[in-house]
Amino acid sequence: MRPADVCRESVRALAHNRGRTALTALGVVIGIAAVIAMTALVTGVRSAMAERLGLSQARAASITYAGADALGLTEADVAALRAAVPGFEILSGSVSTTTSATWGTEAVKDMGVLGVSPDWFEAASARLAAGRLLDAADGESASRVVVLTDGLLRQLEGESADPVAAVGRRVTIAGTPFEVVGVLADAGAASGLSSAIMPLRTLRQRVGSPDGADLYTSVLAFAREGEDVDGLAREATSAIEARKGGSGKASVWPMKAAMEQSDAVMGSFQLLLTCIAGVSLLVGGIGIMNMMLTSVTERTREIGLRRALGARRSDIVAQFLLEAVLVCLAGGAAGMAAGYAAAWGFAGMAAQMAGSGAITPQVPAAVAGSTVAVSAAVGVVFGLYPAWRAARLSPVEALRHG
């Protein structure tokens, strides 16, 4: 038989039993959909995190200190740390607190407030969505100006908040009116942060420092290019605790740890779902084998007639194998579509629950190609035995059947 004839007969046989073919392919659909959904979601989350944190945040670390006498580091501590660990290009202290505020006519009970120096924005790899950043003049004059994070603006105005429209508005913090001069994009160390950022001196004078006039709640460090951030973190921990005489505990947390933790969690979920998908494909493959064996029994007379008319065993094997592969490829295509659609649904829920920006599911070309190959392989593996059984039928005995 010519290849075109084999293909035509295979399609005709499958179309003759559409319902059974669809049900048989269901296991493959579920297995492929699970793999595609999880892969697309994990890839989308990783891409979103990389975009928000930025490559430069792999060089950043957050430093905190909890001692028996104080929670935080002094300016003298930061100066000593700068001398002890020269691998850090920037060490920018900040103070965070919460206080009452008013946005328009709406009272906000506990608004996050962050007091920073201008170099904090560089260390945080902050990006503007609108307006400007705080500068040295703002800090020196203790100006009553703030930069809102994307998270705080969406908290105040809703998901459709317009950063451009927010610039120039007034917000009252701890009884003092402030002008909004900028809005940060959801990126860098500001990703997920919900705070009004003001000059450090302004916070201490207008709002009040929660842990003392000279204490930093945390210090944002930014390593020089080429430095090992993990190694610097260990050096910084030792230097701080040695300076403090072992009376407290220093914590130095590299920002890249956030992505590594997310990768670990996502990897675990992906492994679990891949195992489930593997079981589903196995069940689907067994279902295909069962369908093909049933088809061989039902078409015994047809097989005998074809053999009598000159069809070779290889032609029979090719036809039944092609039928199994076509069922799996159809199931794989449907599974890819269903999995991608499911990934979009899960991405929307994940973004809403996390309060983050949009997550765009992505299916790498290699994964799509592998999906097609796996679908075809399942068809070949589980269709081989039925095809062999069909080809081994004796033409004479087959013609007597039915």
Strand order of the largest sheet: 3-4-9-6-8-7
Fraction in helix:
55-70%
Largest sheet: 6 strands, mixed, barrel
Rounded to the nearest angstrom, the radius of gyration is 32 Å
**Mean of all residue-level pLDDT scores:** 83
Number of helices: 14
What is the beta-strand fraction?
Answer: 15-25%
User: Would you tell me the structural class of the helices and strands?
Assistant: alpha+beta
Number of discrete domains? 2
The low-pLDDT segments are none
Inertia-based shape: elongated
| Amino-to-carboxy terminus distance | 25 Å
Overall number of strands: 12
Element string (H = helix, E = strand): HHEEHEEHEHEHHEEEHEEHEHHHHH
Transmembrane segments: 21-42, 271-296, 317-343, 363-385
Pfam families: FtsX, MacB_PCD
Subcellular location: Cell membrane
GO molecular function, one term: ATP binding
Verbal overview:
- It is an enzyme of class 3 (hydrolase).
- This is Macrolide export ATP-binding/permease protein MacB.
- Its main location: membrane.
- This protein has 402 residues and is of the alpha+beta class.
- The protein has 2 domains: 3-53 and 259-400, no CATH class; 70-246, no CATH class.
- Helices cover 58% and strands 19% of the residues.
- Strands 3-4-9-6-8-7 form a 6-stranded mixed beta barrel. A two-stranded antiparallel ribbon has the order 2-10.
- Strand 7 (170-173) and strand 8 (176-184) form a beta hairpin.
- Helix 2 packs antiparallel against helix 10.
- The longest helix is centred in the last third of the chain and has 43 residues, at 256-298.
- The radius of gyration is 32 Å and the shape is elongated.
- The model has no long low-confidence stretch (mean pLDDT 83).
